Amino acid sequence: MTAFKESKTAENLMKAFAGESQARGRYTYYAEKAVEEGFQQIAEIFQETAYNEEMHARLYFNHLVENLGKDMVVINGADYPVALAATAENLQASAEGEHAEWTEIYPGFAKEAEEEGFSAIAKTFTRIADVEEKHEIRYNKLLENVKNASVFKKDAKIFWKCRRCGFIAESPVAPPKCPVCSHPQARSKILEMSERFQQRTDSKSSSCTPKSTVK
């Protein structure tokens, strides 16, 4: 086994830690831009993904701490993207970054880690690559919605939920404003199947509960 401090894996872990940490920051900024443009649900997805990247960074950092302690790692030849534009461009940049991670960067890092005898680290790279693939798919779908002006307009009836008061509307188009609390369309989100199932379950439970009688 290669000594960790002199290994390529140590450098790759630091590159991955830096990359994931920066991705967390970029996605947080992209979320703020999405809110400015009226894409609240996209903003929430950016924020959720930022948290995912923070956890990826923590996993890489933990490997470094376990194997290096307080030693320094020098990074050679690393470059990191700097992009902040409209939401469509931010989604495009995000999808491209995720694509590079799961198709090239992390598989390469995993291969080198395995060759140097660090199987546990190789598995971390491989498993995180699987997550990044899902991130790319989601970003590309959101980008398609923005480009086609279908963020708040679909081809068939779906359920839209107001984030503020919880009102649910069934329509191909999100209400221009909530008929209950008057919050704007930007505050609408597509009701996920899990939420719909939970609401049906709650409704059935409440219907089975004996009603109190006023005496």
From TrEMBL:
Top-rank taxon: Bacteria
Keyword terms: Electron transport, Iron, Metal-binding, Transport
A molecular function GO annotation: oxidoreductase activity
Ferritin-like diiron domain: residues covered: 3-150
SUPFAM superfamilies, per the entry: Ferritin-like, Rubredoxin-like
Compositionally biased spans, kind Polar residues: 204-215
Required cofactor(s): Fe(3+)
Region (Disordered): 195-215
Gene3D superfamilies the record matches: 1.20.1260.10, 2.20.28.10
UniProt KW Metal-binding keyword: yes
PANTHER family: RUBRERYTHRIN-RELATED
Protein name: Rubrerythrin family protein
Species for this entry: candidate division KSB3 bacterium
